[in-house]
Amino acid sequence: MEGKRPTPANDLWALGATLYHAVEGRPPFEADGLQALAVAVFTRPHGPPTHAGLLAPVLDALLTKDPALRIGAAEAAELLASALRASRSRADTTAEAVAREPVPAPVPEAATEHAPTPTEREAELPASSPLPTPTAGEPAHMPDTLRPPVPERPTAPPVAGPPAEDLISLGWSDQRGRDEGASTRRRALTRRSSVVGVAVVTLAAGSVLTWKLTRDTPPGGGTTGGGSSASAVTVVIGVDAPLSGGLSAMGVGMKNSADLAVRTSNRTGHVPGVNFEIKALDDEAAPAKGRPNAAQFIDDAKVLGVVGPLTSGVAKTMAEPLGRANLVNVSPANTDPVLTLGPHWAKGSTSRPYKTYFRTVATDVDQGPFAARYLHGEAGKRKLYVIDDGSAYSSSLTSGLSTAFTKLGGTVVGTDLIDPAQDDFSYLAPQIRASGADAVYFGGYYDTAGPLSAQLKQAGVTVPLMGGDGIFDQQFLATNTKAEGDLATGIGVPAEDLAKGRDFLDQYRAAGYPEAAGSYGPYAYDAAWAVIEAVKAVVEAHGGTLPADARAKVPQAVSGLAFDGVTGRVAFDEYGGTVNRQLTVYAVKGGSWTTVKSGPGAP
Fold first, then answer.
1. How crowded is residue 177: how many other Cβ atoms within 10 Å of its Cβ?
2. Which residues make beta-bridge pairs with 235?
3. Which tops the pLDDT comparison, 537 or 213?
4. CA distances from residue 328 to 283, 340, 534 in whole angstroms, order as listed
5. 360 in Cβ contact with 331 (< 8 Å)
6. Which distant-in-sequence residues (6+ apart) come within 8 Å of 538 by Cβ?
7. For labelling, which of 8, 36, 260, 563 has a CA lying 20 to 30 Å from the CA of 207?
8. How many alpha carbons fall within 13 Å on the CB side of residue 163?
């Protein structure tokens, strides 16, 4: 009814509804008219079973509204088997009692044995329970005491059951039985109830079944982190980043920062009736991972926005499918101008290639020239040796820098293209020394820049190496004992120097994330908050409801945003680029990155 893709959880709910009708003699939800029935399914609890006996706890578990909290197939099989064993044991006990007594004793009606009502169960729960702090790599989860009541699990030894995804084999003990059961189910699935058919047609024709988001929302809004609330609609924010591999230090910081934004919104009830979660996917900084990850986000109907990726190469493979699906994408790290200005931006012809793509950072249009101005004007460098690693990020960065440096009167005395997968760069040292360069510029990332800088200095190249924001990371220092004097440009202004930056860092540390937020953390927080603000705008524009076409409306809402974020003013131009184009030059002094100069991207 919500237009989402079916999952195994749907079949388990259907099983619960069918069993309920079989033992109670009525369906779990009753209403006059199809639309009223659909609203009842969405918003009301099912009627407490009165004739189910031992099956009552099973029915409650199967009819849990939130699919994420519903029991799986294996647990359902265990509960059903336990109920069957208990039923047989009770029957055997009753038979023995009848044999012993000359006059049959009355057997209690099954109706006297049922699960406690929701009110009774809730009364048994503690009044409050602290929310757990999520550990690294895991979303925050709601403690069991805050979940909708789930019946006690059977204490008898567990019965071997199928995995949760193997629904066809549920209840069959051998392969032949499974095959026959699957065949029977397939035949049964070809028959559709006329009532269900009419309901689907009615809904498709435009019946309004929007969920009233403010309904029964507790004071202060839902729960924190990735938990969910029985009275709130769940909206998922996808996060695409390298969570493994050489760039994982940046990627994990991005993911944690987006998670912090979600937890903050849920804790403060920023969007009444909406509980946000994140769904993080690892792209390993590999462009080949971008399209499959985009497909996963698109297929999840709860995903209304994507934060990331880190690299522009991955972004180029994701932006097109996300755009076709009307799924907004806000990157806290991509700096390739092509993503917002089109492939011919350098020739003065700009166009927006991806209608749902935005970014919260400046681009290489700003970063390369900003570095050139510092090298030539502040550091007094006149001869520059430029090294490219062939990535979209590196090529864009080195191109902008070389052009600006030459216009300022400097000379690019040598260039080289290296493979970032190699580990020996010492062969470059004689070429750089012979060129007379007084600085080296490398356009790649820290995992290559660290060994490159160390090997060049060990081979006698004593001039500083400078890079873009891709090397501005603690890992560059950790892999390079010769980093003293090296330089990097960073996007924006250091968090410590921002009005809200210190509060962000304090909250990040208080949340217990073991990894550093990194240079992109504040921008990932603002990117996630942009999605949250857009969802809020859509909800408010529709009278407190989340419309069926919310995904298509969120990009429009993002384009009109303007708010004060951690990194400063968050707003976007007509191309989806940020209007806040601040950059900073950093130098390694005493083994740490030290701020040298901050300023706007434009001269």
1. 12
2. 276
3. 537
4. 18, 14, 10
5. yes
6. 546, 547, 550, 553, 554, 557
7. 8
8. 2
Mean residue pLDDT across the chain? 80
Q: Nearest to residue 554, comparing CAs of 542, 568, 566? A: 542
Check: CB of residue 284 under 8 Å from CB of residue 290: no
pLDDT in tens, 439-467: 999 999 999 999 999 999 999 999 999 99
Q: How far is CA 365 from CA 98, 369, 393, 404, 485, in A?
A: 90, 7, 11, 10, 25
Handedness of CA 475, 525, 251, 464 (dihedral sign): negative
DSSP lists the bridge partners of residue 595 as 586
CA distance 259 to 236: 11
| Contact in structure between 554 and 531 (CB atoms under 8 Å) | yes
Q: Bridge-partner residues for 278, per DSSP? A: 237
**CB neighbours of 359 closer than 8 A, spacing ≥ 6?**
330, 331, 332, 333, 334, 339, 340, 527, 576, 577, 578
Position 197, amino acid = G
φ and ψ at 134, to 5 degrees? -65, 145
What is the radius of gyration, based on Cα positions, of the chain? 30
**Integer Cα distance of 311 and 334 in angstroms:** 6
pLDDT for res 561: 97
Residues with Cβ within 8 Å of residue 69, at least 6 apart in sequence: 147, 148, 150, 228
Q: In what order do the strands lie in the sheet with 487-491?
A: 411-417, 383-388, 439-442, 465-467, 487-491, 582-589, 592-600
Rounded-to-integer distance, Cα 345 and Cα 114, Å: 70
The conformation of residue 5, written as its DSSP 8-state character, comes to P
pLDDT of 239 higher than 60: yes
Amino acid at 306: V
